[in-house]
């Protein structure tokens, strides 16, 4: 089969299309023929091997698991001897964690992994990236911040993968949502349900005089120190991007003060919890209460170009790899 292999850490040039052996499912696994996969900011960090301390876990000189990508949607082609939850021919979507990548024609996933049946009214392209932006944003807003109806939520980076999902999900939870984005993305973010838009090229959201119950910094480009003054009493600053200052602020605010800084590595949550969150998102997707925003689609052989585009910092929503 064809797959994108990360030959070493570095620029998108380290990604190579290679012919490798098609995987065989273990007793508890399903073999999935992939129709669509995702390319995410997290994938580019894995390619670069950043932050550097992460290499202690993913490989010192190159990734232990060289096939790029984690999100996918496809059809089960074969099942292991002990599989009972799925059968051959089932259309499924989900995420491959800490193992075989998904920028490939096939992958194997445990039947009790982050995997669920595909809704018939949605395409493989719409579902391939759900375990990146939407799943992460759902975890932050519903589980960590426990967003309540009537609260005010600011989403910094509202046009990205996490941001486009966060705007919709915060609205679903009943919040008043302010989206921060650039000029070219104002109309899109507004169409997702944002009550207010702040164009960061013209206005600093920390200087508008407005305050918020929750600030979700989806791109990690602000800081708790900056946001603290525009958080309400008992307000929460959320970031999926861990840094040493944020780590210190999390520890400090866990013990002192009413305003909190919080981080979560969503992909490290127990798989049963991730699967529960995924199935909740599936219900929202199926009913049209959540929509996947797709910027561009690439064929498998152009994954390096997709990584280059992510590196520009200007993608809108999600990038999809199509197995043509």
TrEMBL record:
GO terms for molecular function: oxidoreductase activity. Residues 10-321 form the Enoyl reductase (ER) domain. Pfam families: ADH_N (PF08240), ADH_zinc_N_2 (PF13602). It comes from the Bacteria. PANTHER family: ALCOHOL DEHYDROGENASE RELATED, ZINC-BINDING OXIDOREDUCTASE. This is NAD(P)-dependent alcohol dehydrogenase. It comes from Pricia antarctica.
């Amino acid at each position: 089969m064809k797959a994108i292999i990360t030959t070493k850490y570095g620029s998108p040039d380290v990604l190579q299309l290679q012919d490798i052996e098609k995987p065989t499912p273990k007793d508890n696994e399903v073999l999935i023929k992939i129709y669509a996969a995702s390319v995410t900011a997290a994938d580019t960090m894995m390619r670069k091997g950043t932050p550097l301390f992460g290499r202690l876990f993913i490989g010192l000189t190159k990734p232990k698991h060289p096939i790029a990508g984690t999100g996918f949607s496809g059809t089960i082609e074969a099942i292991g001897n002990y599989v009972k939850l799925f059968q051959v021919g089932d259309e499924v979507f989900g995420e491959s964690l800490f193992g075989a990548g998904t920028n490939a024609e096939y992958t194997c996933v445990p039947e009790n992994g982050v995997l669920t049946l595909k809704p018939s009214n949605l395409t493989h392209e719409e579902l391939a990236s759900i375990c990146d932006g939407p799943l992460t944003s759902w975890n932050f807003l519903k589980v960590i911040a426990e967003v309540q109806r009537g609260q005010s939520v600011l989403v910094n980076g509202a046009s990205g993968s996490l941001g486009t999902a966060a705007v919709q999900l915060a609205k679903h939870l009943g919040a008043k949502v302010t989206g921060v984005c650039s000029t070219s993305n104002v109309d899109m973010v507004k169409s997702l349900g944002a009550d207010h838009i702040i164009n960061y090229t013209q206005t600093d959201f920390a200087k508008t005089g407005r305050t918020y119950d929750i600030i979700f910094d989806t791109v990690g480009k602000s800081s708790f120190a900056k946001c603290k003054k525009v958080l309400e009493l008992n307000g929460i600053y959320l970031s999926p991007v861990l840094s040493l200052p944020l780590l210190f602020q999390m520890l400090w605010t866990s013990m002192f003060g009413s305003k909190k800084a919080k981080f979560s590595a969503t992909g490290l949550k127990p798989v049963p919890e991730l699967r529960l969150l995924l199935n909740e998102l599936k219900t929202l997707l199926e009913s049209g209460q959540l929509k996947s925003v797709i910027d561009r689609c690439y064929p498998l052989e152009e994954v390096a170009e997709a990584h280059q585009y992510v590196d520009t910092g200007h993608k809108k929503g999600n990038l999809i790899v199509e197995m043509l």
